[in-house]
Amino acid sequence: MYIEKINSPADVKALSVEQMEVLATEVRQALLHKLSEHGGHIGPNLGMVEATIALHYVFNSPHDKIVYDVSHQSYTHKILTGRKEAFLNAADYDKVSGYTNPQESEHDFFTIGHTSTSVSLACGLVKARDLKGGDENIIAVIGDGSLSGGEAYEGLSNAGENGTNMIIVVNDNEMSIAENHGGLYQNLRLLRETEGNFFRSLGLDYMFVKDGNDIASLIAAFKAVKDTMRPVVVHIHTLKGKGYLPAETHKEQWHWGMPFDLKTGAPKYDFSGVEDYSDLTAKFLLDEMKKDKSVVAITSGTPSVIGFTPERRQQAGRQFVDVGIAEEHAVALASGIAAGGGKPVYGVYSSFIQRTYDQLSQD
């Protein structure tokens, strides 16, 4: 096995493409084994295995700095940077967090747990490097779902103006936690088919990798942009949940999960007979929507927080709005709906509401 011999990115660099493909299979098996016993983010990590291996093959971490957006897709990164035991040995499962953490490794630069931040953070690393006269590559990894957050646009706009080395890897798996929402995603689809380009309009160079789960193609793309003197987007098209059929088929359900039976995909703990507040909220709101057409439920990329399954979203129709991972917009939108005589209900996780303080106090 190759995975047992990987103690740092230097060990990845010693492998051939064929050996890295075997390593990818081994990493994916290790991830599934741990996730089935421990739970965690499933789909995001399974889809990023090859890209992470290719990044560490081409770039020189920690001299070159990789910043993962949300960082819930950094499990393979941790395996390749000296923390594999936390994925191979059950006794060590809790010795690493589910996100990047500078206290764990010199290969992690930020403690991150929310979305749309990597480009802004990387812009800061770029500015610091340029002020100090450094030569390291700065790489931001961001998913297409995270592009719906306003901070991602703000970072992209600033990156284009900086005009120096910065590499933005856009992991496009056509999903957020649930399906993507917002006009940007029509453009991402066009980018996969034509050259109508959102990124170039912001002053960024652009490269597309059609098969973002093919190691050889990824290595070629990353080598082409390494040490670039211009900010560039490398747009990779990947499969969320790759390598595990239930996660490939039911992407929303398998974004994150509790422990499950690896053979069947069935949860190890059955909560089907337990009614929770999310479920009760959705039932209540759907009933109110039938009585009053001005009632609208709003979510910012996490419809399950208020129990709106795909079936319930379809049932609610235009009385349900998913704004993408854009909590600030969601609160201001709700303010506007209320000012216009509607009855908005915004459902959000408490750990995500920090983005909306200004809107809560001002709007």
Task: Give descriptors for this structure.
alpha/beta; 15 helices; 363 residues; 41% helix; 3-stranded parallel β-sheet
Task: Report on the architecture of this protein.
There is one protein chain. This protein is of the alpha/beta class and 363 residues long. It has helices at 9-13, 17-38, 43-47, 49-58, 75-83, 85-88, 118-132, 150-162, 184-193, 215-225, 245-249, 277-291, 310-316, 327-339, 357-362, and strands spanning 40-41, 65-68, 138-143, 166-172, 205-209, 231-237, 256-257, 295-299, 320-322, 343-347. The strands form three sheets. A five-stranded parallel β-sheet has the order 2-3-4-6-5, with helices on both faces. A three-stranded parallel β-sheet has the order 9-8-10, with helices on both faces. A two-stranded antiparallel sheet has the order 1-7. α4 packs across α10 and α7 (118-132) runs parallel beside α8 (150-162). The radius of gyration is 21 Å and the shape is globular.
Short structural description:
The protein has 15 helices and ten strands. By secondary structure, it is an alpha/beta fold.
